[in-house]
UniProtKB/TrEMBL annotation:
Segment forming the signal sequence: none
Active site residues per record: 184
UniProt family annotation: Belongs to the DegT/DnrJ/EryC1 family.
Organism: Petrotoga mobilis (strain DSM 10674 / SJ95)
Full protein name: DegT/DnrJ/EryC1/StrS aminotransferase
Residue numbers of N6-(pyridoxal phosphate)lysine PTMs: 184
């Protein structure tokens, strides 16, 4: 059996809706774009919604609309999809990383407070809040900690439908985003959307996504620098049809997640996703497991302070950093060996995420190295996404569980040095 990592949930409704677009021969800037934006706006409970061609484009437009300038700094997590940080670079600004919580995998409130207390300066003008894997940030605390001058962007590209204390994710900042890649809760193929209550942000983003045209939309007249970030009509039609089914899709994904929780509840060699009590509706994007460090320590020596996640803000000292890098590489080698076993048995699985600060060009630009954000580095070496999508069958989930448990047992016979 082969079980893919993800799969889109497409029905006859989506196919008929797309055929409606093809039959109309209106393939751009048509009625389905308006319909899709309207249904997203109503779902999020926001005044404005603007559909664009990707979540990355959505984030870029927001940061430009907020007048983020060259050499200004933006706080962001190093444990995220890379575009969350890259948009600061697009504007010649600087992403400033704050390490994560080892349970939620979101940016740590404790570390954020320490950064604001010790390192905050006026050149820090933006905060990119990422709801990683659909799990909400601790928004109440974050809003208390951040100075008023810092403008908040909420990257909820992985969190459509999620709620924190009854409030939809994507609505805690000046503007928020959702994304619709085929592995997301709903899909438009490629695509994203901006939601906001701020008319000025909406107008600027709408202009910039369409080559800088003004409100009049006059053909070939640009009032500002813009981009071709528009969403096409077929993508919008697909998104509209998917949103008509959002409750059904969300219910199916929750059911599949609960199946995994039941299957893995007694498997102590892995750690299940942590859902904070403040979450009133969990948005299931991916299902990420973590190798249990206590189990990993049976294969290689891991100091107690590492097993307990009693980690410093930064690993200090050349020798300590050398030892830390060696340890992380050993753990990552165990994870990669394990993932290879899954792949050989037909279970597609991927490491989620690789630390942004250790991406090759971030190392080159900023001089980052192992030890700079130890919680992110450790979590990254342990976490992996398993097959998860709306229509995964219970038989497939049982197979995934069996292959994972079998492979964990086989790993015990491997030698890691």
């Amino acid at each position: 059996m082969f079980v893919p990592l993800s799969g889109a949930d497409i029905t006859d409704l989506e196919k008929r809706t797309i055929m409606d677009v093809l039959n109309s021969e209106r393939l751009a800037l048509g009625p389905y774009l308006e319909k899709f934006q309207e249904i997203i706006k109503e779902y999020a409970g926001m005044k404005y919604a603007l559909a664009v061609n990707s979540g990355t484009s959505a984030l870029h437009l927001i940061i430009r609309a907020l007048d983020f300038q060259q050499n200004q700094k933006m706080i962001v997590t190093p444990f995220t999809f890379i575009s969350s940080a890259n948009v600061a670079l697009f504007e010649k600004g600087v992403p400033v990383f704050v390490d994560i919580d080892p349970h939620t995998y979101n940016l740590s409130v404790k570390n954020l407070k320490e950064f604001i207390d010790k390192d905050y300066k006026d050149d820090v003008t933006a905060f990119m809040g990422v709801d990683v894997f659909g799990v909400p940030l601790e928004w109440d605390e974050i809003l208390k900690i951040l100075p008023d001058k810092i403008k908040i962007i909420e990257d909820s590209c992985e969190a459509l439908g999620g709620e924190y204390k009854g409030r939809k994710l994507g609505t805690f900042g000046k503007a928020g985003t959702y994304a619709f890649y085929p592995n997301k809760q709903i899909t438009t193929g490629e695509g994203g959307v901006i939601v906001t209550d701020d008319e000025e942000i909406f107008d600027l983003c709408k202009s910039m996504c369409n080559q800088g045209r003004g409100k009049s939309g006059e053909w070939l007249i640009s009032e500002r620098l813009g981009y071709n970030y528009r969403m096409d009509e077929m993508s919008a039609a697909l998104g509209f049809a998917q949103m008509k089914r959002i409750e059904e899709i969300s219910s199916k994904r929750k059911e599949k997640a609960m199946n995994y929780f039941e299957l893995f509840q007694s498997e102590e060699r892995v750690v299940l996703p942590f859902i904070p009590q403040e979450v009133t509706s969990q948005s299931w994007f991916v299902f990420v497991l973590r190798l249990n460090l206590d189990w990993v320590s049976e294969l290689i020596h891991i100091p107690t302070w590492v097993r307990n996640f009693d980690l410093p803000i930064k690993i200090e000292g050349k020798q300590n950093r050398k030892e830390w890098k060696e340890l992380i590489n050993k753990i990552r080698n165990i994870l990669q060996t394990f993932l290879k076993k899954l792949s050989e048995k037909g279970v597609e699985s991927k490491n989620y995420f690789y630390p942004v600060h250790l991406q090759p060009f971030y190392r080159k630009m900023f001089g980052y190295e192992e030890g700079d954000f130890p919680v992110t580095e450790l979590i990254s070496s342990l976490t992996f996404a398993i097959p998860f999508f709306s229509n995964i069958s219970l038989e497939e989930q049982n197979y995934v569980y069996q292959i994972i448990t079998d492979s964990l047992t086989e790993i015990k016979n491997e030698t890691f040095v």
